[in-house]
Design brief:
single chain, nine-stranded mixed β-sheet, four-stranded mixed β-sheet, about 500 residues, alpha/beta, Flavocytochrome C3, Chain A, domain 1
Length: about 500
Amino acid sequence: MELIPALDVSEVRFDETIDVVVVGLGAAGASAVMGARQAGADVLAVERSGDSGGTSAHSGGLIYLGGGTALQSACGFQDSPENMAAFLRAALGPGVDDDRVNAYCEGSPDHFDWMVSIGVPFRASFCDEPNRESADDAGLLFTGGEDTYPFDELAVPVPRGHKPECVDSAGGYLMERLGAAVSTSGARVVTDARAEALVVDNGDVAGLLVRTDDGPRAIRARGGVILATGGFIHNEAMVAEYCPLAHVPDPAWRIGTPNDDGRGIRMGVGAGAATTRLDSFECALPLGPPHRLARGILVNRDGKRFINEDTYTGRIGFHALRDHDGLVYMITDDVIHEPNPIGLRIGYAAATPEELAADLGIPPDALARTVREYNEAATRGDDPAFHKRAPFLQPIGAPPASGIGAIDLRVDHGAIYATFTLGGLVTDPDGAALDSEGRRIPGLYAVGRTAASLAAHHYASGISLGDSSFFGRRAGHHAAAQARPDRSSLH
């Protein structure tokens, strides 16, 4: 990693002093601004592009919240922080940060109320199509495989994907509402401003050097600098060094903006912050909607199944790419398959599994055995191998189907493998950046994908916007308390 060294305070003449400086105005940065402003701090936000939004504005807008939010209750679901934490530890691990997970789950209902209070609306309606944002403006859905094996045996299945009241993708609308809150908060926003380097004073972060069209400007921050600059999926060197599996052939499916180049991470390391799990990434392989398509089976180049097809598509994509090099097929037929908005089409068809395998270049005996054993179990309404649920168990190629077919999901044959990075700076539950010994670096905070995600090695859709806004708000509040300890209070 090419770190960005911090400047010593002796090298800098500050042009102004403010309580809190926030770098980046996606969901994490906007929430940090609001947290700091509501705690009474004077805030300057600097945004590298010409407008706020970042990657958050291009997302589906799902926010992973739970523990008993008002929206969950209104839709008839009961949840608790303990139940939510049990799922997240299993689904996001191994290696989750228990302290951060606990804080997130315990504070999640209040955080939902806070989002509503600053102008983000949600419609109390449950959508039964999982894994992606609802096609209408329904506000609640399953987004992480909570209702699939093995998680349905580890925690009570409860939907936690909270989507703002917007038809289809809601990321742009979410950032419109957060941007409106920032614009009326009294914070000062400077766009087209690139953070050049942090400024340190005896190891503490004292401020930031920013470059605009008018030249460099040094800003002292009494309470701290909050880095919310995104991840590094568009930094070719960092991806190649730390996370090569996320370097999929089609760059169009790397989720992020060109500003997701790891700059905040490199600045933080230059000031002494530690990093973790830079090799972690999310990789969704959409198999719907409709979710009925999960009645097919996924096989690898050896003709064998490797996962329960009804689970979260991020989990499917991760295992397909990491464990099978993206060399996978969906085996289906003309009864199971149907037109779908993501364009999945049967590319190979044959009368028997053996003939299909020959077309695919995989072992005929292995595929025939896989299909035979699956069909025998599906006929009984059972899936002992991978525990796919009964509604998605249907024999493949059996009458009235006219044969058997395959959808080519190989990574280099046009399938969607949508990736972004999850690793970043090590932080505590207040968003404070930590050094390699686990000590806080006074004056430095990291949130959003500049910080390591709650998702340690696996993901659930909505976690990024969830932990970005949650820990962004907490970091803003905490930094404000350092600048104005007599005035800070969390609202």
